[in-house]
Amino acid sequence: FPTAIAITEQPVSVSVPVGYSFTLRCRAQGRTSLQYQWFCQHQSDCRLIPGATSQDLPITAEQTQLYTCRVNDLHRNAVFSDWVKVEVHRCVARGLPPRLWQGEPVIVLNPSEQRVQVGQPLQLQCAAMGVPAPSYQWYRNGNLLEQQKRKKLWIPQAKVSDSGSYLCCASNSHGEHWTNAVDVHVGEQSQPTALCCTSTGKIALLVGNNRYQHHPNLMAPVRDVFELSHLLEQLGFQVVSLLD
After folding, report:
1. Which of 56, 112, 123, 134 could form a disulfide with 170 if both were Cys (CB 3.0 to 4.6 A apart)?
2. Phi, psi of 80 (to 5 degrees)
3. Measured in whole angstroms, how far is the alpha carbon of residue 42 from the centre of its chain?
């Protein structure tokens, strides 16, 4: 009879800034000693990771990739872990946030106001960092949209009843974070002049400085930047956040 191998801890997907360091974990049990081998896939190229033969795989995020771990026993039985996604955000400053971040969701892309005609597709998009990767839930006028559980909200043929105020909640085991609320108008003729007049083009640049040459490191510049960023976004600013 083949020797059973059971994976007791699957790796989990993450969504992190470029340059962020973390570890994927895989644990398994078997009737003999076990061997581990990690694989990664970028686009259609799947390859073995040389030297990645431990239960833990340390990663410094550079590009979005998929990962899986193969577990072998001494009788040539093998099982594979779940494929997990390491999503890398390049729109965030490299390595931000470093030590103070505990993996709670951080919104990095807010949806934008939409004005579409009846019968045309409606698309809203958001994105959040998180460890583990956040799950998403969209709302319209405060009501949960049962089928809209992805970063991208998609309605193939918009109806007048789809008009309203939309926002999305990104959540994981560390907490939740909400996007800005945006208005969606279905069935109204677009009015470029009115939109032009209401566009303010407000941009805010936030710099959190943590490393001083002749002063001890500050305690919470990164968290302050996130809190100020969220506040300014609520006031209609487009926010660019940098660290050091």
Report:
1. 134
2. -110, 145
3. 17
